[in-house]
Amino acid sequence: MRRGADVSAALFVWCALANALGIAGLTRVFGYPGVLNTPAAATLADLGARERTLIPCVLLTATAAFLLVPLTARIVRARPELDGARRSRWLLLCTSLATSTVLIFGWSLWLVGVPLLAHPPGVTGRLDPNVITFDLLRVVAGVLCGETLGPLLLAGWTTLVATRFVAVVLDGWWPFGPLRPVGRAMPHRDGAFGRFVAVAGAWTNWLRLRGLLWSRPALVGGGVGCAVLLVAGAASTVGLIPAAPLPVLARMVWSLWLAGVGVAVWTSRTQFPVALGALPRMPRRAGGARAGRRPQPSERLPYRYDAYHQAIRQNAERLRAAERRSSHPTAATAGDDAVTVAGDEVILDGARRNPAPAPPSPSSRSTGLSGSSKSPAGEELDPPTEIVSSPPGPEPPGAGTSER
């Protein structure tokens, strides 16, 4: 599982890096995409004189286009629950195949056409047939496929990945765990430096929570924004929008977004000592309303964020009460706390080590006479668990009546 996540993340990052380096090199050295509109004879002669610079840049961009297919294949295999429908997986895979084919055909003009056609004409004073062929290939492969149809297909692929794949990764993911509530279970340090470390840790946790809150809308919205830029770049190529640098800007922003998705994939598979589970759904009551409605995928991250802050406030009140009873600020805490998200609740697990058993109360002694309270041999007791839920909303009408 860990190795597969590393390979998928590496494919995302390598595709983004190859595309960005190739486009940047073509723009810096050859003035791409303006080279598609310059006179054909002068352009062919200039490209033929600098083949050693042209071919590596085009190879990088063609590699990025080729990586879309294995990248999508790993998405489909690793996430079979994409939208719960087989049609979505096939649509994503077919879109990646079409996008990769069109883009590679567009870049083949520079990889194959320029080395074959860039040589001096045999007869001076006449129009070279190689220039005519290059001009025709430049219109068909360069403008029509590489800069118009290719970006449109890439925009469709980006939209599918952002709305299907990225949402699935982030909906079931608590990426920054284990997170300790601010002010809880901090190691006791003496001196000004120790206090500085404690404050820095608290602020780090706050920044992690903010990152959790904005990670999903940033990646999903960023993918949709990249798709809009790619469509606008294609419109600029055919002359509908007077913005020459827009195609290059769209490709660079798309590369940045793709690298961000790769980082999210790599982080989402990191082995944290937390458990992600699902609670059983609440039964329906009279009237058809479901008590305690589970949040939708778009509501889960803010829901977890609010519930986690509620847990922080409750634990802060207990910490202040413990400080009034004891001089050691962490004496009444459970040690290293981990955060678990299970369905609709935020569960704060105690320390990994078993706590010291409390002396039995008279009621427990009387209860223990009827049955044994010892656990089976070789098994350890689970640490104490506290479930903190968000405050319930108003009860729907008829929810209090029993189901008949």
Helix content: 55-70%
Supply Rg.
30 Å
Mean pLDDT: 69
Terminal-residue CA separation: 46 Å
Q: Which series of helices and strands comes N to C?
A: HHHHHHHHHEEHE
The shape is: elongated
Summed up, the helix count is 10
* Secondary-structure content class: mainly alpha
Largest sheet: 3 strands, antiparallel
Q: What fraction of residues sit in β-strands?
A: under 5%
The strand count comes to: 3
This entry's quaternary arrangement is single chain
Low-confidence sequence ranges: 174-186, 270-303, 327-358, 364-393, 399-404
Biggest sheet, strands in spatial order?
A: 1-2-3
Biased composition (Low complexity): 330-344, 363-376
Region (Disordered): 284-304, 319-404
Transmembrane segments: 53-69, 90-112, 218-242, 248-266
Keywords: Membrane, Transmembrane, Transmembrane helix
What report would you give on this structure?
With 404 residues, the protein is mostly helical. The chain has a domain at 2-268. The chain is built from ten helices and three strands. It has helices at residues 2-30, 40-49, 51-66, 68-78, 86-117, 129-171, 191-237, 246-268, 297-325, 362-368; strands spanning 338-342, 345-349, 385-388. Strands 1-2-3 form a three-stranded antiparallel sheet, with helices on one face. β1 (338-342) and β2 (345-349) form a beta hairpin. α4 (68-78) packs antiparallel against α5 and α6 (129-171) packs across α9 (297-325). The chain is elongated and about 95 Å long. The relative contact order is 0.11. Mean pLDDT is 69; it is low at 174-186, 270-303, 327-358, 364-393 and 399-404.
